[in-house]
Each structure stands twice: as structure tokens, then as C-alpha cells.
Automatic annotation (TrEMBL):
It comes from the Bacteria. It comes from Roseinatronobacter domitianus. PANTHER family: 30S RIBOSOMAL PROTEIN S1, SMALL RIBOSOMAL SUBUNIT PROTEIN BS1C. Gene3D superfamilies: Nucleic acid-binding proteins (2.40.50.140). Belongs to the bacterial ribosomal protein bS1 family. The lineage of its organism: Bacteria, Pseudomonadati, Pseudomonadota, Alphaproteobacteria, Rhodobacterales. This is 30S ribosomal protein S1.
Length: 559
């Protein structure tokens, strides 16, 4: 009984001793390199156990293995004994476990970690962080896209841990965050030394459509295209090239965003300081067309001084025409200075003012009454437009087409392209109008016919037509119409049929209308006037003479 108890106690003590001294699988133990053979290091991990580790596990990425006999190293014990009776150990896993502990602490403290890029994978690179492998996305390599990552491979450098999950074995790091932080510190240091208005040297790093980025020694400034020169710059490449060292002036510094605005033109004299002196009003200068818009053309008078020729000031005669039809880009033109606004840096120019006003020239060459010839350019409801010298038009109004026809009827005889002759009746230079008359080429039959004829005159006419409403007569080749009510004093005699074509009749002129070209005639008015005249001359019925006697005596006396 006693012997049995002693054996049980010894067995328990032995098991307890083994459990205390033998390391558990899955832990990191310290061993000693006792030999190196066949590309492996033989490590004594104690407890009468030895294991083998490939030499490559002792090498950092891009470096040769660093291990020698006698070195004490930490290894990960995977199994106490394999089929050959050796312990299964791993140097990589030991380093990884130690690295994870260190990395978790660094991640919690937001501290930088050191590593080396050793491989390329889809979407980025692999980084060795002292045994733990992390993923470096391509967007996190640098502040700008990297075309060749070769120089960065195997180079020990700091990284920032963005995300890590030990259970899944995932670590994401960033090199860009380190560079941006360093860059921010460097920018702050450089910006602190800069002041607005200061002139500095810089190197052109990049050119865009709107300007160029200039490196001022660790911090970039923007040189906007409008600050490159006083003149118009279509593209920054006209002024600067990448890699060029240039002098710039610091225009503005934003301390919060660290943005710096630069300028080159500020280092040069402002040409606008002498514009009013060099370009007085109404003076004529040569310039170059730099830009054409719908509303006009910009003309450069000198570098930095541009003026606008509004479309209304481009041509005397071409109205509602696009400026590109009159001038072209880079064309040299003569312009007149019309207005200067130095505050707004604007110059109004005129192109047509350098040429003589064609209406003034026409008025000098073709005074009123001059006969001209031209082509019918257009026909409207109120007249004809005729092309004249100087690329201008004159208008023949409906009322100036014919003496004898209504204007609406006379205009039907003309077609676009017809060559017509006319007389200049008026030239209004200010309103740019020229009035022409075609009917002025012929004699005014009406004026000739009624010359000397006044209202109340007695004229002899010839009957040419008998109508229900009256009779048509002709006087000096001019037709007139006597209405039925004007054919006689007595109503019984107001009958058109009592007249015959060819009869000669005397009528009194009741109106002479030169505007409507009508002569008013009345036989009735003549008879009443004769009666009145006879009564006044020979007495009245109250004096004992009858109306028949008076009229008979008057007629006898007239004969």
C-alpha cells in the first residue's frame, strides 16, 4: 500500500515537472544556433529538443541571411516533435508574432513604423514590417502617381498604419501619409519665411490650362495664366516651360490652406500707367487682332494693352455681320481711340472711323439733283433699295416712282437686279439715308397742265367719256372727272347723257391738289359764278329786270 502510494506520487511529480519545463506548442521560445548545414540552421531550443530553420528566414527583404553559430534567436514552436523526432520551429512566425505585438501598440499610439517594400501585387505593393506583411495600396505610395517604384523596393522607410486586423492577418499601410505630414511641416517652414510682395526664384514643376505650379523650395505656388504677362496669354506654355527657373512675386499667401499665388507681370511696369498719354482720344494707331467674339474684336495696341472694337464700330455699311467676316485673328489693322477707362482698364476702339464716312463722300460727289445709276438690291412694301458707290444704298419711295401711276402699281414693274436711273433728292449723313427719285427724271405733266390755273379759274375741257356718275374730260392732256351733281345748276340738267364725246365744255376749277394730282372741275359752279357776276353787274330783279334779261345782257356783253 505504501509502495503503491509512493509510485503514484512520483508519477504526479514527474508529470508536473514536464508540464512546467516543456514549452507549449504555438509559443515563441529562445534557442541557440548550434550548427549551419545544407542551407539550414540547427537550433537547440532546450528540453533536449532541436529544430531546423531555412537560412532565408533570417534575411530581411533584399538582404543576405544574417545568422551564425552561437547566436541566440527566437523561434516559434509549432510542434514539439515531428516524424524524425525533431522540433518543428519557424523563425518567420516568431518574428511575425513579435512584430504584430509591436505593430498593435504603434497603431494604438498612431506612431510610424519602419518597413521595406519587397513585392508587387494587384492594386499595390507588399511591405515587410519586421516580420509582418502589410499591403500598400498604389494610391498610398506617394503624393503624386508613381510610374516607377523600382527605386523604392527594399528601401527601409517609415509607414503609417491605416488599418489592421490580427485575426484576419490584414494590415494596410501608407507611405503617402508620411510624405504629406513631412511636406506640411516643410511647407509651414517655407511659408513662414515668405511675405506678400517678396520676389523669389522658383522652378516650374507642372503646366495646366489655367496656369503653372512653381516649386519654391519645398512648397508649390500657383502662377495663374492671367498673372504671367500684361498681354493676353492663350496658354501658359507661351511664357514658361517645365523645369525652367523663373523669378516670381508672391502675390498672396493663405496661412490656413497654405496656398500661394504668384505673378510674373507684377515684376514689370504696368503699361496702363501711360495709356492715356500714349493713346489720346481720336488718335489712330496700328494694332493686331488677338481675339474675335460675337460682339466685336480685341485689338492689341502694345503688350498688355488691348482694346475692343465693338461690332457697331467695325464698318460703315456692313450691319448685323459677324466680326469674323470683317477681320481675322493676327490681322494688323488701323484703329481710332474712342474712349479710355483706366479704372476698368478698357479701351474702346473704332475701325470704321479710320475710313471716310461713305455718306459724306457720296454727298460731296453726288449733290442733290444729280442723276445716278444703280442696281435694285431689294424691293420692299414701301419702295426700292438701289446700290450706290461706296457700298451704300439709296431708297426710292413708292411716291417717287411715277408721276402718273400709284406707287403700289408702279413698283410691280421692277425686279431685283434691274439697273435703274434716278435723281438724288436728299442725303442725310447723320441718319445715313439717301433718298432717290425715279419720277424726277420725267417732266411733271400735272404741274405743266395746271400751270397758271388757280381755284376759280374757268377752263375749257373736252368730253372723253360718258358715265352714270358723271363725265370724264381732258384738259391739257390731263384727265379729270366732273360728277353728275356738278354738271348743271338746275337738277333737271344734271344728266350725263346730254353730253357727247368730243363736246367742248367750260368748267370752273374748284381745287388743284398737287399731292393727289387731281384737278376739281364743276360746270354747276361756273353757272352759279356767272349768275352772281351778272347780277352784280347789271342789277337785280328788284330793279325791274328779269333774270333772263340780265343773263341775256351779260352774255351779249361777253360776246
Amino acid at each position: 500500500m505504501c509502495a503503491k502510494a509512493t509510485m503514484e506520487d512520483f508519477e504526479a511529480m514527474l508529470n508536473e515537472s514536464l508540464e512546467m519545463d516543456t514549452p507549449s506548442e504555438g509559443s515563441v521560445v529562445t534557442g541557440k544556433v548550434i550548427a549551419i548545414e545544407a542551407g539550414q540552421a540547427i537550433i537547440d531550443v532546450g528540453y533536449k529538443m532541436e529544430g531546423r530553420v531555412d537560412l532565408k528566414e533570417f534575411a530581411n527583404p533584399g538582404e543576405a541571411p544574417s545568422v551564425a553559430v552561437g547566436d541566440e534567436v527566437e523561434v516559434f514552436l509549432e510542434r514539439v516533435e515531428n516524424s524524425r523526432g525533431e522540433a518543428v520551429v519557424s523563425r518567420d512566425k516568431a518574428r511575425r508574432e513579435a512584430a504584430w505585438d509591436k505593430l498593435e501598440k504603434a497603431y494604438a499610439d498612431e506612431a510610424r513604423v519602419e518597413g521595406a517594400i519587397f513585392g508587387r501585387v494587384k492594386g499595390g505593393f507588399t511591405v515587410d514590417l519586421g516580420g509582418a506583411v502589410a499591403f500598400l495600396p498604389g494610391s498610398q505610395v506617394d503624393v503624386r502617381p508613381v510610374r516607377d517604384a523600382g527605386p523604392l523596393m527594399g528601401l527601409k522607410q517609415p509607414f503609417q498604419i491605416l488599418k489592421m486586423d490580427r485575426r484576419r492577418g490584414n494590415i494596410v499601410v501608407s507611405r503617402r501619409a508620411i510624405l504629406e505630414e513631412s511636406r506640411a511641416e516643410q511647407r509651414a517652414e517655407v511659408i513662414a519665411k515668405l511675405a506678400e510682395g517678396q520676389t523669389v526664384d522658383g522652378v516650374v514643376k507642372n503646366i495646366t490650362e489655367y496656369g503653372a505650379f512653381v516649386d519654391l523650395g519645398g512648397v508649390d505656388g500657383l502662377l495663374h495664366v492671367t498673372d504671367m504677362a500684361w498681354r493676353r496669354v492663350n496658354h501658359p506654355s507661351e511664357v514658361v516651360t517645365i523645369g525652367e527657373t523663373i523669378k516670381v512675386q508672391v502675390i498672396k499667401i493663405n496661412k490656413e490652406t497654405h496656398r500661394i499665388s504668384l505673378g510674373i507681370k507684377q515684376l514689370q511696369a504696368d503699361p496702363w500707367d501711360s495709356v492715356e498719354r500714349d493713346y489720346p482720344l481720336d488718335s489712330v494707331h496700328k494694332g493686331r487682332v488677338t481675339n474675335i467674339t460675337d460682339y466685336g474684336a480685341f485689338v492689341e495696341l502694345e503688350a498688355g494693352v488691348e482694346g475692343l472694337v465693338h461690332v457697331s464700330e467695325m464698318s460703315w455699311t456692313k450691319k448685323n455681320v459677324h466680326p469674323g467676316k470683317i477681320v481675322s485673328t493676327s490681322q494688323e489693322v488701323e484703329v481710332m481711340v474712342l474712349e479710355i477707362d483706366s479704372a476698368k482698364r478698357r479701351v474702346s476702339l473704332g475701325l470704321k472711323q479710320t475710313l471716310r464716312n461713305p455718306w459724306e463722300q457720296f454727298a460731296e460727289s453726288y449733290p442733290t439733283g444729280t442723276q445716278i445709276e444703280g442696281e435694285v438690291k431689294n424691293i420692299t412694301e414701301f419702295g426700292l433699295f438701289v446700290g450706290l458707290d461706296g457700298d451704300i444704298d439709296g431708297m426710292v419711295h413708292l411716291s417717287d416712282l411715277s408721276w402718273d401711276q400709284r406707287g403700289e402699281d408702279a413698283i410691280q414693274e421692277y425686279r431685283k437686279g434691274d439697273i435703274v436711273q434716278a435723281v438724288v433728292s436728299e442725303v442725310d449723313v447723320e441718319k445715313e439715308r439717301i433718298s432717290l427719285s425715279i419720277k424726277a427724271l420725267a417732266n411733271d405733266n400735272f404741274s405743266e397742265a395746271v400751270e397758271g390755273v388757280k381755284r376759280g379759274s374757268i377752263v375749257t375741257c373736252e368730253v372723253t367719256s360718258i358715265e352714270d356718275g358723271g363725265i370724264e374730260v381732258i384738259y391739257n392732256d390731263m384727265k379729270a372727272f366732273i360728277r353728275r351733281s356738278d354738271l348743271a345748276r338746275d337738277r333737271a340738267d344734271q344728266r350725263p347723257e346730254r353730253f357727247q364725246v368730243g363736246d367742248k365744255v367750260d368748267a370752273r376749277v374748284t381745287s388743284v391738289d398737287a399731292k393727289t394730282r387731281r384737278l376739281g372741275l364743276s360746270i354747276k359752279a361756273r353757272e352759279i359764278a356767272e349768275e352772281k357776276e351778272a347780277v352784280e353787274q347789271f342789277g337785280s330783279s328788284d330793279a325791274g329786270a328779269s333774270l333772263g334779261d340780265i343773263l341775256g345782257a351779260a352774255l351779249k356783253d361777253r360776246d
